[in-house]
Amino acid sequence: MKIRDYLKEKKLICDGAFGTYFSIINSEILPEKANISAPDTVYRIHSEYIGSGANIIRTNTFSSNRRSLSCDKKELTENIKAAYSIAKKAAGNDVFVACDIGPESSDDFFTIAETFIKCGAEIILFETFSDVDSLLPVIKYIKEKNRDIFIITQFCVNQHGYTESGISAQRLFELCSSIEEIDAMGLNCGVGPSHLLGVLKNINIETDKFITALPNAGYPTVVHDRMVFIDNIKYFTDVMKNIAPYADIIGGCCGTTPKYIKELSSEIETDVKFHIHKLHKDILQQNTKEIKNNAFFAGKENKKLIAVELDPPKNSDCSGLMETANYLKNKNVDVITFADSPSGRTRADSVLMSIKAARETGVNVMPHICCRDKNTIAISSLLLGAYINDVRNFLVITGDPVPSSARDNVKGVFNLDSVRLMEYMKEMNRDNFSSDRLHYGGAINYARRNIELEISRINKKIEAGAEFFLTQPVYDDKDIETLRYVRSKINTKMLVGIMPLVSIRNANFIKNEITGISIPDSVINRFTEDMSRETAQATGIEIAREVMEKVADFADGYYFVIPFNRLSIAQALIK
Q1: 548, 517 in Cβ contact below 8 A?
Q2: Angle formed by the axes of helices 233-243 and 193-201, nearest 10°
Q3: What gap in Å lies between CA 136 and CA 211, rounded to an integer?
Q4: Is residue 37 a contact partner of residue 75, using CB atoms and an 8 Å limit?
Q5: Which residues contact 271 (CB under 8 A, 6 or more apart)?
Q6: Which residues lie below 8 Å from residue 68, measured CB to CB, with a gap of 6+?
Q7: pLDDT, tens digit, 9 for 90 and up, residues 134-177
Q8: Quick one: which of 216, 226, 211 has its CA closest to 257?
Q9: Does the global pTM surpass 0.70?
Q10: 117: helix, coil or strand?
Q11: By CB distance 3.0 to 4.6 Å, which of 67, 95, 292, 497 could disulfide with 471?
Q12: Three-state secondary-structure class, residue 96
């Protein structure tokens, strides 16, 4: 019987985690290498899961790729063939075999898929992925080769229902439901059963796709320097009973041994006909409150927008910053923005500084959110805290790398980049902030050698919800022309960076040590070593005003960067 026909009449019990169970038996080698070196062990594990009640098993190929196996293409195909042959032998005629492909195999997708197709695969399973887009080309390729192959896509989410790419389970289910080539979709790995149940309960969708649910046994603990899963079979099974109404294929991921599957198969009612899944569709009508305008933009369509950047302090003294912020609050400035430890050097937190400035001055604020220092959990917490404190505007940046001198002690995180963080924030707007959403923009790197690549990246950010862009400070006529060209290619607001130079030393430092900013000699030569501070500052202001005039025809506004938070410079620029 074909799997489609079977699932219309009954639920399937899937096997557990081959890799973690294999490591209990043999921790010396990668499980996938055993397809060639220890086929009897692979066969035994498949047989144990089948003997425990699994009627669909996955081939031992999750990490079968050239990099993990340290092999060439020919050796990879031999590994795939061996894995498929062992699984089919163990399955016989009564158990389905799903050909397993994991995310680390992305460079070998087509080789692996082609090998499975030639082996006679009826089911191909993509598991533990973080997005749909990376799968579409190979999925379409498989269906072009054989329309009858049943394709399952499974995604790994965190406790809040988001993948590492910042995409929510809700959005993933919506995307998969709209893709004809996908037959089943679901969640695996990442979380234990209770968190997976919570994620499924919060998905609001009606779909005719089959759904899978394969959570981890729970969360691992360290025992004698090894990561192990505590035996919690009864708890796992009890929660899976509550998951069962949401899914058509039920099983386990990391930590689920044959004992888990035996208990699961004995407790889950599988003789249930398939029905259209209506996951909390009644909730779709909530959150219809009118979306508030972004105070940064509201009512300012016919004027230049003004953003002013102030640097949070390196120590506990923020008196200079607050003095400048208080001056700006009555000077028609649209938003004050705060950098997030630029150049990888510690400063006061940008969000906390924004909250203080907003409370004490009443100005609109916009902290920078940098991906360098925080993982997805920390960024989620930061955004929630900012939202609770009425911060709605953000500048999203990937971030400068940690200085080489500090890399022995300080490590960059880069769990997300700016595009993925924007996608994550877009999902948070859909799920958490639909009535009063976050507003965010990005940066433009006009110094990129291939400006078309930069424009492509800008458009990806726009697709991810970016509403505006700020540029690096500009001084060179060539860069101005580049920005004029970029603005002609994008359909959103662009604020051009304006940063007055304050001395010849300052100008040379920025030219030679700050990446992404070019200062022509003609600008450098307008400063001299013997200039007084006042004269040098006046010269910098004059150059800044000249740049403002040159970009006025295409810039939607100006992004003033105030060196050293000097009040006198802010006063001169705003005047």
Answers
A1: no
A2: 10
A3: 18
A4: no
A5: 9, 10
A6: 30, 32, 104, 105
A7: 999 999 999 999 999 999 999 999 888 888 877 889 889 999 99
A8: 216
A9: no
A10: helix
A11: 497
A12: strand
